[in-house]
């Protein structure tokens, strides 16, 4: 509706120079650009930026926004000043201006026509705390003075709310709906499948919760080419922000030139996700903490090995809509360990007793290893030990025991709490330590092991192997393993670089 591209690059900075720098890079990736003038430090900085813009406007459709603080923006000036900046923005080359309903309702429409008549008006309403009870009432208020377009941005606390907002948006031509919040991230992207789909993507600074940055949206998710035909996959978990599964799977789809997308779903209530599978057109999904065991209740069928393990990390949605579960962590563990340890006859300690621990225990036992388990909840550990014919080991016995390998299957040490280790140096009496955590690659536990001269293995290898197996289950094609591996290692290297510069 607003510009030629549905992905709108958002330019927002405190200084005119950095705003200009962002604008130049935005123009390379999108022909629809929002200028968040309210992010500029003061009126002088806004004028400085607009003067520069007037001299050399980019070849793009630009939308000027100078949202006041009362509406969730950063502009501290009066409404009169706000209108002056928007007028200058139109003169400098912007085709559209966004006026929040709080300001619009205080300005007579005739005044807006006189002052801003040459521009196209988008009237917007933002609900940062919760979805409004009646979207129809909000839309009616926004449409009252017949603007060129209206926008409703609302926080969504469930996929059900995201769907409600999307359904509402689908019915009206000149309406843009934007779901906000971390839960809404996949809905924001999937909204681009609609005829009036529109997504704001910051060049550098997120201006609303749940935004994905422009480069990631275009390069990782290939969101510019989304359509109703695009096959949708994803990962469900809580938390999910740390997951590199989107990088892994989307790289696979891109390498095979497949019209498919893989998204991160932050899911608190499994039922909320399960009832959204069909409406969102999801064809398969990965399952991570804390849903690997609970998802079993929602499956119509399950691979016998996954059933035995009691944890599912992969679900395929069959043609009839029924869910079928698998466990590819099992494959990942074996692929990783069998190259380094002769598993038959070895003694291996697993730390933790959750979903990953169960997969590791079954994989090792089936490969002929003698499995020992140590966990803070004895009851859960005992159940696993019994299932695989293994033994329990008390935490305080660890300094006196020897193992061929130790496997960490707890999240202790995982991003962002990277300073923690589930074991101390004195507990590490073994030839090899394998940490199933892959972010960071070098966990505190692996550092302790390395200092003691013990061979270390990062969870990244298991991560790639389990993901490749998932990808092949869903697509029934051979996975482009190298491309997938490269994407994950590149993301991890970038993160490590960023951490060093901090
Ligand atoms: P999970 O089902 O939630 O189980 C986590 C286990 O860790 C539970 O036994 C839990 O004990 C224990 N634990 C949590 N915090 C602890 C602490 N502070 N001290 C001691 N034990 C603690 O999770 P999961 O799915 O098994 O995943 C566990 C880890 O495996 C995660 O780090 C995940 O990233 C990793 N993983 C990696 C891959 C890969 O491909 N590399 C694949 C799967 C999993 P309670 O039951 O008492 O809470």
Structure description:
The structure is a single chain. The strands form three sheets. The chain has an eight-stranded parallel β-sheet with strand order 7-6-5-4-3-2-1-8. A six-stranded mixed β-sheet has the order 10-9-11-13-14-12. Strands 17-16-15-18-19-20 form a six-stranded parallel β-sheet, with helices on both faces. The protein has helices spanning 16-29, 43-55, 79-91, 101-104, 109-116, 135-143, 159-170, 185-190, 214-219, 245-255, 270-274, 277-280, 304-309, 329-337, 355-366, 378-388, 444-451, 460-475, 481-501, and strands at residues 7-11, 32-36, 61-65, 96-100, 120-127, 149-155, 175-180, 199-202, 231-237, 260-266, 282-287, 301-302, 314-317, 323-326, 347-351, 370-374, 391-392, 403-408, 430-435, 455-457. The chain has three domains: 7-227, TIM Barrel (Alpha-Beta Barrel), CATH 3.20.20; 233-327 and 465-501, Rossmann fold (3-Layer(aba) Sandwich); 330-458, Rossmann fold, CATH 3.40.50.720. Helix 1 crosses helix 2, helix 14 (329-337) packs across helix 15 and helix 15 (355-366) runs parallel beside helix 16. Helix 6 (135-143) links the parallel strand 5 (120-127) and strand 6. It is built from 19 helices and 20 strands. The model has no long low-confidence stretch (mean pLDDT 96). The protein is 37% helix and 20% strand. By secondary structure, the protein is of the alpha/beta class. The radius of gyration is 26 Å and the shape is elongated. The structure holds NADP nicotinamide-adenine-dinucleotide phosphate. NADP nicotinamide-adenine-dinucleotide phosphate binds next to helix 14, helix 15 and helix 18.
């Amino acid at each position: 509706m607003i510009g030629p591209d549905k992905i709108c690059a958002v330019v927002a900075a405190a200084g005119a120079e950095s705003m200009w720098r962002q604008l130049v890079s935005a123009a390379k990736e999108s022909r629809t650009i929002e200028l968040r003038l309210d992010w500029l430090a003061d009126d002088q900085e806004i004028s400085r930026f607009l003067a520069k813009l007037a001299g050399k406007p980019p070849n793009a459709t630009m939308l000027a926004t100078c949202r006041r603080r009362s509406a969730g923006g950063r502009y501290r000036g009066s409404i009169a000043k706000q209108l002056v900046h928007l007028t200058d923005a139109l003169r400098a080359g912007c085709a559209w201006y966004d006026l929040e309903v709080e300001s619009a309702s205080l300005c007579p429409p005739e005044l807006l026509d006189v002052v801003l008549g040459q521009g196209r008006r988008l009237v917007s309403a933002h609900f940062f705390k919760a979805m409004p009870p009646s979207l129809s009432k909000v839309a009616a208020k926004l449409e009252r003075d017949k603007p060129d377009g209206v926008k409703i941005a609302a926080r969504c606390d469930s996929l059900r709310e995201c769907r409600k907002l999307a359904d509402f948006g689908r019915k009206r031509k000149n309406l843009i709906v934007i779901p906000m919040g971390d839960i809404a991230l996949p809905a924001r992207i999937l909204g681009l499948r609609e005829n009036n789909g529109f997504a704001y993507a910051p060049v550098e600074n997120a201006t609303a919760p749940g935004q994905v940055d422009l480069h990631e949206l275009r390069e990782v998710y290939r969101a510019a080419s989304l359509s109703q035909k695009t096959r949708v996959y994803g990962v469900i978990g809580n938390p999910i922000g740390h997951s590199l599964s989107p990088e892994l799977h989307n790289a696979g789809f891109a390498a095979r030139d497949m019209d498919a997308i893989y998204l991160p779903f932050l899911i608190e209530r499994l039922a909320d996700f399960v009832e959204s599978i069909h409406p969102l057109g999801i064809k398969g999904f990965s399952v991570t903490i804390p849903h690997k065991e609970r998802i079993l209740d929602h499956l119509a069928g399950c691979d016998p090995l996954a059933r035995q393990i009691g944890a599912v990390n992969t679900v395929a949605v069959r043609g009839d809509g029924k869910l079928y579960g698998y466990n590819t962590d099992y494959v990942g563990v074996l692929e990783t360990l069998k190259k380094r340890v002769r598993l038959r006859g070895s003694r291996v300690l697993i730390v933790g007793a959750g979903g990953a621990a169960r997969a590791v225990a079954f994989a090792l036992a089936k490969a002929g290893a003698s499995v020992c388990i140590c966990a803070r909840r004895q009851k859960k550990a005992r159940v696993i030990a019994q299932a695989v014919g293994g033994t329990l080991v008390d935490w305080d016995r660890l300094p006196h025991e020897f193992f061929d390998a130790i496997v960490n299957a707890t999240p202790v040490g995982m991003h962002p709490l990277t300073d923690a280790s589930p074991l101390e140096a004195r507990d590490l009496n073994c030839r090899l330590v394998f940490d199933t955590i892959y972010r960071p690659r070098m966990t505190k536990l692996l550092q302790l092991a390395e200092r003691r001269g013990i061979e270390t293995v990062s969870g990244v290898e298991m991560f790639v192997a389990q993901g490749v197996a998932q990808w092949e289950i869903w697509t029934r094609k051979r996975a482009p393993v190298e491309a997938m591996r490269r994407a994950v290692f590149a993301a991890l290297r970038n993160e490590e670089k960023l951490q060093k510069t901090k």
